[in-house]
Batch of 2 targets.
Target 1
Amino acid sequence: MNRKLKDLIWGMLGGGIILAIYLIVASSAKPQGDFILGQEKRISVQPEMPSIHQTRLAAMPTEISFVEAAESSVNAVVHIRTEMRTRTTTYDDFFGSLREYLYGSPFHNNQQRNVVGFGSGVVLSADGYIVTNNHVVEGADKIEVTFNDKRKMTAEVVGTDPTTDIALIKVDGRNLPFLAFGNSDEVKVGEWVLAVGNPFNLTSTVTAGIVSAKARNINILGNRSSIDSFIQTDAVINRGNSGGALVNTSGELIGINAAIASRTGVYEGYSFAIPGNIVRKVVDDIIRFGEPQRAFIGVEIREMDEELANKSGEENIRGVYVARVTENGGAAEAGIKSGDVILEVNKRPVNSLSQLLEAVGQYRPGDVVEILTLRNGKTRSVNVKLRNQDGNTQTQTREASFFNKDLGATLARLSQNEKNELNIRSGLRVVDVREGVLRRGGIGKDFIILQINGTPTDSREDLESALNSGRSRTVRVQGMYPNGMRISFEFVR
């Protein structure tokens, strides 16, 4: 074999080796997402997927800090200790003052005992107004407030509203740290919130959670006119948190913690707060008028369901159904009729009784609200002037206590809430008893005068008119104690 032939063979062999190496390298570099569909070649690029653990971390709101909100809240939230003196029988409630009159000295019942309670409160002003739950201070004879810096002060009740479970108390303070209200209507489900209070008799404690629901009706207030509409949260709340603050991440007060859902008495996952806008309105009422001002549209409603929606010509189940319109009420005056559906109150959607009560509960008698209604498939907007429980637009101002010489007692008017709880239409409460016919008759503090000579007594004018109305000198008094014991007696003027 000549030299030229050998060179050709070795050249072809080398070229084949190089081609084989190239094909192997090219094959290994082919994208793994390549596939052939018919004659068309498509390339699919598959990005690297993060792990589940990484995805969860990426979803956490790490940019939110609770530090400033917590620091501004803890010093404005106080611990409340209450004492209430109780006796074991109603027998002594009545006959205690009679023994004092007969024997010349107070009767000391060996069975009397002190009941101690604990809760929380939120300072609303630098001069010492504090809001808490009504059930924290209800019936208390002594209220002691402890601040986060361990200062202690005695507080007095300014006013209460059992229909919202709100109470306003006052200490004699200056330059106290306090919280400002936020707008609870703007709170969103899923928003981060802090609960600040004194659980288990500890100093101020902060827990975090999210808003789980709004306008939640949990049926705990037990009054037909109650505003049972709560902000639900999963922030940890326990015994002693009642009356404490629910704040947003800006440190604004958006609710007053009131209750937990529990079978054991401790936190199990759900907590409830009174919306801040309701709290602010009730507190303002108590300061300005001495008692809360409740406003009513003048309707009886039903929760919407599919049947009522079809009856109303509405494709979607929304709004609240007007079952009846109160005669001479604000709704009737505005043209609302039975069978209408209320969709909005002042541009705020209402889809349940609790939402409607919360929306209207922020206004007073005499205020005008815009209500969007649905009738026969068509919407219409009407202006409704809200009225009070008596059917007029007047605000109810608690009359200052007054002394009546004929009875020898200081008396005060009852609030509408007190009348509702006692199921009475009128009455005057005995605030203090001095020498006179009531003391001689064994009548003591907290006795409620319902009628004098058959005439209902609901004011100073009613009392004086009834005392002077009879031709006879004999005066007949009918009344009751808050425990339900009713008493009638007569005396000669």
Target 2
Amino acid sequence: MSEEADLSRRHFLTVATSVAGGVGVVLAAVPFVASFKPSARAQAMGGPVQVDIRKLEDGAMIRVVWRGRPVWILRRTEDMLQRLASQTVELRDADSNESEQPEYAKNALRSIKPDILVVVGTCTHLGCAPIERFDVGPADLGADWVGGFFCPCHGSKFDLAGRVFAGVPAPTNLAIPPYRFVGDSLVLIGDDTGASA
């Protein structure tokens, strides 16, 4: 009987060790497999971003991040809108036919509401960040400059609607992300369901 008991004991130990090893492999694999799931931060980066513009003053701009891209929201003044309307400098794509934007932004102001510009703040040349230059006729940009955005990397210029000037390295206008207004004071960037001009 001693041999049968020994065989029985070995069989039990083999099965128990195999089960314990299998459980260990599964427990070790769970965190590895879970690492493939995007983090909460990564999931949030892909979702819409809600921005309260109640405190955004005339002529001021705020910056937010949507999907890892900088997005600017500019509240244009009446003076800025008049300067934009009187734009005499030649633009490369004045009607925004070659640029990334939703249909409701295919107008001279490239926006749903005339005073609010929502634009991706990345130069379409090599991805640099243009700077706001809302001053009129500065010495370094020329007497015909009526305000807009200037990319210091290679000299690309964009007007107050993000339209690119002719003769600069940037090939297209600044991109307009999908967005819509939720009431009068909230902008939802990344979701344009129901948005209209």
